Each structure stands twice: as structure tokens, then as C-alpha cells.
Amino acid sequence: MEVYKHKCILIVIAVSVITFCVLLTAFFVFHNRSVETTSKRLNLVIDQDGGADDAMAIFMALLYEKYFYGPKVIALTTVHGNVDEPQVYINTQIILDVARRRDVPIYRGSKSALVEGAKSDYYFGYDGLGDNRTVEFSSIAARHTQAALALIELSKKYEGELLILSIGSLTNIALAIKLDCEFMSRLSQLYVAAGNIYSEKYSKPEFNAEMDVEAYHIVAGDGNAKKLTIVPFSQIRNDIQISNEWRLNVLGSIPTEIMQAQNVFEQVSIPKSKTWVLLDPAAMAVVLNQSVIVVETRYSDNSIHLCGENRGINTNIMRSIENSNSKLVYSVKENTYKQFLLDLFLAELKCECTDARTQYNSIQLILTRVPRAYQSLAHDTLRYWVPINGFYLRLVYQLLHREEVVSKISIMLFACLFMCFIVFSAQNESNERLKLVIDNDAGGDDAMAIFLALLNEEKFNGPQLVGLTTGNGNTNEDNVYINNQRILKVANRQDVPIFRGSKSSLVITPYAGAYYGEDGLGNSPIPDGLVPAKDQDAVTALIELSKKHNENLVVITIGTLTNVALAIKLDPGFLGRISHLYVGAGHIESEKNPDAEFNAHMDVEAYHIVAQYASPDKVTVFPFSQVKEHLNISKSWRIDVLGGIQTDIIKAQNMYESVVLAKEQDWAALDPAVVAVVVNPDLVSEYKYSKNDILLCGEKRGINTNIFVEKEDANVRMVYSVKLEEYKQFLLNVFAPSE
Length: 739
Prior knowledge:
The chain is an alpha/beta fold and about 750 residues long. Helix 18 links the parallel strand 12 (about 435-440) and strand 13.
């Protein structure tokens, strides 16, 4: 009898799945046909920092979607701000639970500013939601994709149809821009609720802008007036002065779960001011109903001060649309805004939603039976399934109540996962050879470094080169990419994947010059038969390789640190997973080396980020000052001895360095020296430990700071001196013709 029941259940499930697929296919066919004759509904992502003001803005968007056919809220992304990011994530779950919209995906984002952030004032309480310690909610699992990467993916999926509203710090948006230079162009519009129009009345930095000044600078720098709309807090405060009495006794009296929760969320903030003026809900009103709310917009060349006493203060030069990077919301209507709020939050009372409420309760009952890890997927499925056939909903609910079925499925899943773990472990055990990634800017010095790594791997069974990542530096990134292709072709190693990286520095991109020629490789001809790069970008490739080769991957940077800094900001666990990071950059400042070193200077903020996250067990810096001090080799040796080796690689290398060798008296190349000490640590005669960083502002911007200390007080290990004769012999051994 029991077997017969199981067979019946399986048959019912099979029929259900087939029916569901048929209905779903039909739905999409007819839906797509109807879309052609109707206007497309825009999609909305809210990038937020989980305060009570964010809560109201999110509630507004969800209500407008439901009752006024507004933009579809397709995601919430979290970012540090009102509270730290883990608390923002908790608050986001609470907000969606209150709104009964657990179907909205959550993507977790940046836990800190790109470079240096401000401290929160905890205006809405230490938890951001009114310090309500008794709040209960059902947890919602976040999606695995990091927020900035999710923003990029969504901009591609909904190209031209995606609105993004940022109502927190701009860290996630800035990361998306730096990871994908086409990101902004794919959006329908980016709305930024941040900043002030500076005046005597508004002479201090605005909170959201100040929380990540560099991120604001990046977003403004990439903006154009047709894509970027800024809602400055100064203008909201000028035009909206709503009394606390209206907020509490009119808006706050609406007897819905959402408004009563919102009242609790604001119980700390409302008594702090005589009037009720919040930026985030005002900005959301602009997004949802701009034509009614906004009185005047202006076009501006908008930016922000990065340094000094004015750090965090916005600059605005009002210009024509053609010469501006942003549109500013300059004035709004208070009475219209108030009426808009009332219409939104009263909408629930005016609509009979019994069926929807019943549907929601059914979904929640089922989700209680689903393992937490699969709740998000299950919720998405049920959201579309339930309206089609309630019978299947009841069937699945009954099935999931059978404890023995759930237990057997769980055991089977665990067994499969365990077998996968065993296979994966066996593969790792048989593949312990150290892996290398070289992050480079493909000048002539990078070429020699890459050749050295490849030949050492081939001749001496050295670490395996598993990737090259490109970045702006010696030449523009487009040239760097081509140069990587050329180097691999000469080495006959076009199996090594290339991942294209940053085309500019994080914040300020200095002029690089043409030290190795206009193309970076001595203005040499480009051969045919080059192999294209992988589709994956450099930053996500670095992160994935760090996971794939956990504790067995060495990353070597011999250009700017932009890609590595972005990897760290996207995934703070990145450095912890790799075996080691070697940085070829910087100087130990002295009278001989008073200026900024090229690689460090090309992205000062990126160097600072890496230094902030560094530890001496994970990061070794090889300053160029020490190469010049200990590895300053005569030009004649380079040309006649090393350059006299008759191989295709050395012949190509001579060509790549021809511009430099013609103008320098000696030969001191940082990049091959860095790779040499990685693959042959015996070349190092002395290490030191240092508190290492870089100056971000003023005339000494780009100058490194070093305080030599004991290891436990340091953040980096430093290559201080190298054995000259051993290094020269090592080069000869590596580049000698194969027998």
C-alpha cells in the first residue's frame, strides 16, 4: 500500500511538472505577443543602506508597483551607511517581510568605502530601524552574486529598461562602473540621492556623499546628463518642511501593517527634529512620479572634493546639457509630495486583496518546509506557479509535510555533495603545483617578466602560469591586451588565458607617457594569429581563480594595482584565499628616490586599498628603489650578453625594449626582478617588515610611507636587497636556448 502511494505521488508530480511547463510556455508566448503592442514596464533596483528612510522609500516602490503599475522592483542591494552592511542585510529582510514581498532578491554589497569613509551618526538608531529589539521576521537568503556584479548582470539583462536608485553610499555603483565601463550606458536612468548644492546654509558634506567620497567622484566622473539624475538633500530641505504632527497624526495614522512598522522604524529619528524631512522617500517620489513632484531641474558639471578641509563637499557648475555630467533636481512641490505619500500608503485600504493574501499565506506555509538554502529559489518558483493552478500548490504542500520523503531527499543530496567533495579533494591533492597569475600593463619590462615565468615553468618545472590579467599603465589597456597576445604568441604559449581588466585608475588616471614606445613594446609590428581574451573580466577571474586554487595561487602585480584592489573590495576574503600577493611597485623614499614610483602613482587609491588589507604573511612588496639600488645592471651586459642569446624570445625582447635601451645608461627593470624572486626566493638577500602605505593628497600624492617594524606590527614584507650576480646568472639560465 505504501509503495502504491509513493508511485501515485511520483505520477502526480510528473504530470504537474509537464502541465506547468506547458502552461508556462503558453504564458510567455502570449505575454511576448502582448508586449509588442503595449509599453514596456521599467525595472527598478534600489541600492540602499537599510535605515528607516530607506525603508519608507522601499515601501513606496513596492506599493507603487502593486497598485499603480509602477516600475517592477527586481532587486535590493545592500551597502554600508546608516549602519554596517550586516545590519543593512538584516534590515532589508525585515522590510521585505513587513511588505510581504519576500520574492524580491537581495544582493549583498560593500561593507566599507572604497578608500576612506565617514562614521555613521546612527540617526535612525543603532540598528537603523528605531532600535526595536522585539521585531520578528522570517529570514530571507541573499543571492550569491555580489551586489556590484549583480548590477552589471541586471543592466545587461534589462538594457535600456533598468532604473537604479541609490539612497546610500555609492560604493556598489562605483564598483560596477569600474568593472564595466559600459554599465552606465545600458541603464535607462541612474538616480543618486546624495550631496548638497553648496551654500552658506549647506556648507558641510551630505551624509550619503561623505560615506564614500571617492565612489561619488567615480560616479560623477562617468556621468552624463541624459543618464544621471542627482537629488541633492539641500534642495529637498529647501522645499519640503513637513511638520512632525502631519507625519505622526496624518500619514502615521494610516492603519496598515506597513505604516505601523514605519512608525516604529522612525521612532528614534522623528523626535530629533522639529520638521520631517527625509531624502530617500523624496528621491523615490522623484523616480516614481517625477513629472508631478519636480518643479525645476538644472544641468550641472557635478563633482566632489577629495582632499583637505573641503573633502566631501560637492561642486556644481551649472551648464547646458551638452556640457554637463548630471541633471539636478533643483526644486520640488511639498503639497504634491504629501498627497503622493497619502495616495501610496492608503492604497492598501482601498483595494480588496483577499486572494492575494491567501496566496501569500499558502506560499509561507510551503516555505517553512523547504530547507533554508533553497527558500529563495522555491519562492521565485511559487510566485509564478501559484496564480496558474492552486491545486498544485496544495499538492506540493501536502507532499512536503511527509517527513520521511524530506528526510530521504536530504540524505541523497548530502551523499551527492559528499562524493563531489571527495572527487574535488582528490583532484587538489594530485595538483599541488603552485599557480601564478601575472597582473600586468604590458610594457617591455612586463614582457620579460612573462617570458621568464613561462620559461621557468617549462625548463625547471616552476609554478604554472594560469592567467594574465591586463590593466591600464605603460600604455592604454587596449594596447596592453594586444601586447599580452603578442607575448604569448612569441612564447608559443597561447594556451594561457588572458582576462581583460581596468581601462583606467580608480579615481584619478595620470598621463602615462610612452616610456616603452607608443604601443608599449618598442613600436614593433603586430603579428597575425593572435588568440582572443576570455569573456570573463580580470577582477572576477582573479576572485574565481583564488577559489579554484585555494591557498595555491600566487598573484604578481607588475602594473597598477587597480584590478587587485577591485577584487579585494568585491570579495574581502580574496587575500586570505591566495597563497601570496607580490607587488612590484613603490619606492622606499630617500634623497635618491624623492618622487613617486610609476606603478604606485598610476593608481594611488588602489595601492592604498591593498595596503589597508595587507598582512606580511600574504603581501610582499618589491619597491623599484631597491631594484635601482641592488640590480642596476650595465646596458652593455643587457645588450651583448643577455641580448646576445639567439632565441626568438630574446630577439623579440630586444625589440620590445629598443626604445628604452636607446635612452638609458643602465638597465634596471622592476618587473622581471619581481617574477624572479617569486620563482626563485633564494635570490633575496634581505627582507624587512614595514607599515607601508601611500599619500593620497597634496604635493606628495603617490609617495610611499614606510615605518620598519617587527613582523607582528607590519602590514607587508618588503624585498630590501637582492643578490646581483645570482640574479644575472638566473636570467641567463632561464633565457638560454633549450637543448
